[in-house]
Amino acid sequence: MFSIITIAMLILMITTIVMFLASILSKKAIIDREKSSPFECGFDPKSSSRLPFSLRFFLITIIFLIFDVEIALILPMIIIMKYSNIMIWTITSIIFILILLIGLYHEWNQGMLNWSN
């Protein structure tokens, strides 16, 4: 019978050989200039870095993050409901949802939700 050390060394050698072969076989011989250049959000990295950037993309991202965090905060409120005082839970939930609705109204009033532009 083989000893445990012999089996461990055999497994180590096999995995080393397999990783070495995978590394050699996965290399691509053709280096493409376009694939080697950095990609920055669709902008040409070789052009001027001071091109005008639409603020609308930034605002859409911020609105998405706000509503994404909102969902992460609302979902645990349902689980906490049976462990907390129902009056305090109700007041906290109403205040939280009211703040979110005021923020949504403000975004709508400022025209941030107008997708036609």
UniProtKB/TrEMBL annotation:
It is a multi-pass membrane protein. Keywords: Electron transport, Membrane, Mitochondrion, NAD, Respiratory chain, Translocase, Transmembrane, Transmembrane helix, Transport, Ubiquinone. It is an enzyme of class 7 (translocase). This is NADH-ubiquinone oxidoreductase chain 3. It comes from Drosophila gunungcola (fruit fly). It comes from the Eukaryota. The keyword Mitochondrion applies. The chain crosses the membrane at residues 6-25, 57-80, 86-105. One of its GO terms (molecular function) is NADH dehydrogenase (ubiquinone) activity. Core subunit of the mitochondrial membrane respiratory chain NADH dehydrogenase (Complex I) which catalyzes electron transfer from NADH through the respiratory chain, using ubiquinone as an electron acceptor. Essential for the catalytic activity of complex I. GO terms for cellular component: mitochondrial membrane; NADH dehydrogenase complex. InterPro entries: NADH_UbQ/plastoQ_OxRdtase_su3 (IPR000440), NDAH_ubi_oxred_su3_sf (IPR038430). It is found in: Membrane; Mitochondrion membrane. The gene is nad3.
